[in-house]
Specification:
This protein is 42% helix and 26% strand. The chain is of the alpha/beta class. The protein folds into 3 domains: 100 residues, GMP Synthetase, Chain A, domain 3; 97 residues, 2-Layer Sandwich (Ribosomal protein S3 C-terminal domain); 44 residues. The chain has a 4-stranded mixed beta sheet with strand order 1-2-3-4.
């Protein structure tokens, strides 16, 4: 069987950053970890219609800051900020300390892997044909500039008695390349026939880490120096060749060309 690694965990610390940033003592670690999981679960269920793509949590000196990346920030903020205040109060009841919420908009939802998977799952729950939903998602992502996309559905597709997996792929999705920026999303569709799992991988191009950036900058500088030296050498060669043409036919002085009167 194929041994597969999680696309996010494989690149964590290389081109991906942690989704939770905080330090604690050994006694507090378990409590804070379960608190994070509880907050994430609550926000995903509460803001399901807003299309939440990612949730980042940061703790420092008794303060909790949460970044929510969503496709519809207006649904979370609400009229006059009423909805976001209600969400902040409910999150504050789950934890100790001051809570700050920052809402970030996802510029292109069609190329976000989590939103793509959730969109397909939502269509499956509405009895849309699974092939139609997957093809539409793939076409939309490629139309919005994704480098590649792969989607897969697994379960009792179309109400069949035997569960199976089907998927579509377009472009390239290098899952084993560390510097490849591959997003991964997973969602579940709860249908009358059972649960259908939806996975999505979206490729956004390569990310140059600092070492590779330094190497490329060094190579660029070397190429620049070589180009300048070649240009200077060409100018010198042109100058020398022009000087040689001048010295090939020197002008004869008048004293040599015209003999003196005494000699005649």
């Amino acid at each position: 069987m194929g041994q597969k690694a999680h696309p996010f965990g494989l690149r964590l610390g290389y081109i991906k950053d942690w989704r939770a940033k905080w330090f604690s003592t050994r006694k507090e670690y378990v409590r804070l970890l379960h608190e994070d999981l509880k907050i994430r679960k609550y926000l995903k269920e509460k803001l399901r219609l807003a299309g939440v793509a990612d949730i980042l949590i940061e703790r420092s000196s008794g303060k909790l800051r949460i970044w929510i990346y969503t496709a519809r920030p207006g649904l979370i903020i609400g009229r006059g900020g009423q909805e976001i205040n209600r969400v902040r109060d409910e999150v504050s009841s789950m934890t100790t300390g001051e809570v700050f919420l920052d809402i970030k908009e996802v510029a292109v939802p069609q190329t976000n892997a989590q939103l793509v998977a959730e969109n397909i799952a939502l269509q499956l729950e509405k009895r849309v044909a699974f092939r139609k939903a997957m093809k539409k998602a793939v076409a939309s992502a490629m139309g919005k500039g994704a480098g590649g996309i792969k989607v897969m559905c697994k379960g009792r597709l179309g109400g069949s008695e035997i569960a199976r997996a089907e998927g579509y792929k377009e472009g390239k999705v290098p899952l084993s390349t560390f510097r490849a920026n591959v997003e991964y999303g997973f969602a579940e569709a709860f249908t009358t026939y059972g649960t259908i799992g939806v996975k999505a991988w979206v490729y956004h191009g390569e990310v140059l880490v600092k070492k590779e950036e330094a190497q490329r900058a060094k190579q660029f500088e070397q190429q620049k120096i070589q180009k300048a030296s070649r240009k200077e050498l060409a100018e010198k060669v042109a100058a020398v060749s022009s000087g040689e043409t001048l010295t090939e036919a020197p002008l004869v002085p008048d004293e040599v060309q015209k003999p003196s009167d005494g000699i005649q």
